[in-house]
Design a protein that fits this description.
- The complex is a heterodimer of chains A (351) and B (228).
- Chain A is α+β, with helices and mostly antiparallel strands.
- Chain A contains nine helices and 22 strands.
- Chain B is an all-alpha fold and 228 residues long.
- Chain B has a single domain, classed as MetI-like (MetI-like fold).
- The chains are: A alpha+beta (351), B mainly alpha (228).
- Chain A: It comes from Chlorobium phaeovibrioides.
- Chain A: GO terms for molecular function: ABC-type transporter activity; ATP binding; ATP hydrolysis activity; molybdate ion transmembrane transporter activity.
- Chain A: InterPro entries: AAA+_ATPase (IPR003593), ABC_transporter-like_ATP-bd (IPR003439), ABC_transporter-like_CS (IPR017871), Mo/tungstate-bd_C_term_dom (IPR008995), ModC_ABC_ATP-bd (IPR011868), Molybdenum_import_ModC (IPR050334), Mop_domain (IPR004606), P-loop_NTPase (IPR027417).
- Chain A: Keywords: ATP-binding, Cell inner membrane, Cell membrane, Hydrolase, Membrane, Molybdenum, Nucleotide-binding, Translocase, Transport.
């Protein structure tokens, strides 16, 4: 999917002016509140039009002030998933799901309802009303409703912000599987770097109504490392755990990881803060941390007064974070070898 | 409790007038409430003032304006007269009087209901391929039902009690335009008819209680949607 947008709008004291040309099937829009994310969402969905400019999705023009063209929301085929699900409260789950499907031209239909309902595990909910659904169920229904209308693009406006951490990471696999399985490109809007890492390949970052930069999830996580509460969040997808002394052992790179909160049944996703990794120049004699990994330093990068160390082992990599003085004292450079100590309890299982 | 045949006619007429006024006003009230709640246009404040004016005017003043307009010298009245339609001093004039006085109550209740509709539901419907009319019928209307019910009940009750405007445009003709309040007014002016007046008062209370019960029941049914 190629998105070209050149739009300007004055909203009271807020001036929105963005110019971007980005191609990817998983685009992220990142920014703090007040950065213009919602304005951009409304412009893409057709619920707000720029004062001046043009919006193109692939070769189709959605808006052009010079051509006096503004495609109505219902003709844009842009699926919306909101923060608060926005399900029709007077309709059952089933009628919510089929609201868009029934209004979609037969030649545009590319999603089979039964298949989608199975993927999103909605079978048991179909005849229920929407008011008594849990937050996660509501969001799955909202996602299915948008996908069943066979949109050419899904616009997800902070769909996970209203959910607690447990639910948030349960929904992400659904979001990913639906967009991958049914081949629907998506634009994912969020102010969470971890969500950006999980849901996007290319990211537009907004600041004060302007495009700050086009970047990748990894670059964004590096840039925000110093000011983020959890530093650089390493996401590790691991499977095939074995039990070892009350811990879960996973193969990782050329070594293995011992994790307290593992899952022996299926694959699991863990997060590990860059601040929970302690580096040693030489192999320590005795250490209480259950993981001591011999890693090669691939590269280093600076973020304010911090230094990020990209560690590799086999084909896997981790980012550790130390203060600049420690990096100078340890003389860490690309190509050197270090030992990384990580407590088994530092890994937080997300899924 | 004793009721004369004229009293029975007054009760029937009251119900007929209130029901007709409510049913005729509901679609227009819904449209006006939709305009005020969802649309931005020049002159919106003027429209709001005009709609709400009957709330602040004495009903007799409204009755007098209606009399001027619907009489032979008013342009709507003369047009209707040319078409062979005579409204003044008929039950239809009472319907117009009730509809005019109760209309702001109806619009305000429906609008309150519409204002509470999450705008993202409208955006969701549109992005799912729904036209504005489709959205109006499948999303806005069902979600405004509680407001429509509340407004209709209020308007029905207000119409049952309408006196000032009705007596001016429809008169107080027993069997033709005399409603419950007008009949009570007649009985009240004669000291020997206290029992008759009280009987009609009791009927009036009973009708109001039934209206409130029906409203509560329907509102409860609407509220329970989506909770299975």
């Amino acid at each position: 999917m190629r998105l070209r947008i050149e739009a300007e709008k004055q909203l009271g004291n807020f001036h929105f002016n963005i110019n971007a040309d980005i191609t990817d099937n998983r685009i992220g829009i990142f920014g703090e509140s007040g950065s213009g994310k919602s304005t951009l969402v409304h412009m893409l969905s057709g619920h707000m039009h720029p004062d001046r400019g043009e919006i193109f999705l692939d070769s189709d023009c959605l808006f052009s002030s010079s051509r006096n063209l503004n495609l109505r929301p219902r003709h844009r085929r842009v699926g919306l998933v909101f923060q608060q699900a926005a399900l029709f409260p007077h309709l059952s789950v089933s009628r919510n799901l089929f609201y868009g499907y029934r209004r979609c031209n037969k030649e545009h239909r590319k999603v089979t309802p039964d298949e989608l309902i199975a993927v999103l595990k909605l079978d048991g909910l179909l005849e229920r009303g929407v008011r008594n659904l849990s937050g996660g169920e509501k969001q799955r229904v909202a996602l299915a409703r948008a996908v069943l209308a066979s949109p050419r693009m899904l616009l997800m406006d902070e769909p996970l912000s209203a959910l607690d951490d447990g639910l948030r990471f349960q929904i992400i696999p659904y979001l990913k599987s639906v967009t991958e399985q049914f081949g629907i490109p998506c634009i994912f809007i969020s102010h969470s770097v971890v969500e950006m890492q999980l849901m996007s390949n290319r990211i537009l970052t907004l600041q004060s109504g302007r495009l700050n930069e086009e970047t990748t999830p990894d670059q964004l996580a590096r840039k925000t490392m110093a000011r983020s509460q959890r530093g650089y969040v390493n996401l590790l997808e691991l499977d095939g755990a074995t039990s070892e002394g009350g811990l879960f052992a996973y193969r990782w790179g050329e070594g293995r990881l011992l994790i307290s909160d593992g899952n022996s049944r299926s694959s699991a996703l863990f997060e590990l803060s860059s601040r929970d990794i302690i580096l040693f120049q030489k192999h320590p004699e005795a250490i209480s941390a259950r993981n001591l990994l011999e890693c090669r330093v691939k590269e280093t990068f600076s973020a304010d007064n911090r230094v990020g160390i990209v560690l590799t082992s086999g084909n896997r990599q981790l980012v550790a974070e130390i203060v600049r003085k420690a990096a100078d004292e340890m003389q860490i450079t690309a190509g050197s070898t270090v030992f990384a100590a990580i407590k088994a309890s530092s890994f937080r299982r997300l899924i | 409790m004793q009721l004369t045949p004229e009293d029975i006619t007054a009760i029937r007429l009251s119900l007929q007038i209130a029901l007709t006024a409510t049913l005729l006003s509901a679609p227009l009230g819904f449209a006006v409430a939709w305009l005020l709640s969802f649309k931005t246009f020049r002159g919106k404040i003027l429209l709001e003032v005009f709609i709400n004016l009957p709330l602040t005017l004495p009903p007799v003043v409204i009755g007098y304006f209606l009399l001027l307009m619907l009489g032979r010298n008013g342009w709507p009245g003369s047009l209707l007269n040319d078409a062979g339609i005579q409204l003044i001093f008929t039950w239809k004039a009472a319907v117009i009087a009730s509809a005019t006085v109760g209309f702001p109550l109806l619009v305000r209740s429906i609008r309150l209901g519409m204002d509470s509709i999450n705008r993202q539901l409208i955006q969701a419907a549109e992005s799912l391929g729904s036209s504005w009319f489709d959205t109006l019928i499948t999303v806005i209307l069902p979600l405004s039902l509680k407001g429509i019910l509340a407004g209709s009940s209020l308007m029905f009750a207000r119409s049952l009690g309408e006196f000032g405007a009705t007596i001016i445009v429809a008169g107080n003709i027993p069997g033709l335009t005399q409603t419950i309040p007008l009949a009570i007014y007649d009985y009240a002016s004669s000291p020997s008819s206290t029992a008759m007046a009280l009987s009609l008062c009791l009927v009036s209370v009973a009708i109001s209680v039934v209206v409130l019960f029906v409203h509560e029941y329907l509102a409860g049914t609407v509220e329970k949607r989506g909770e299975r």
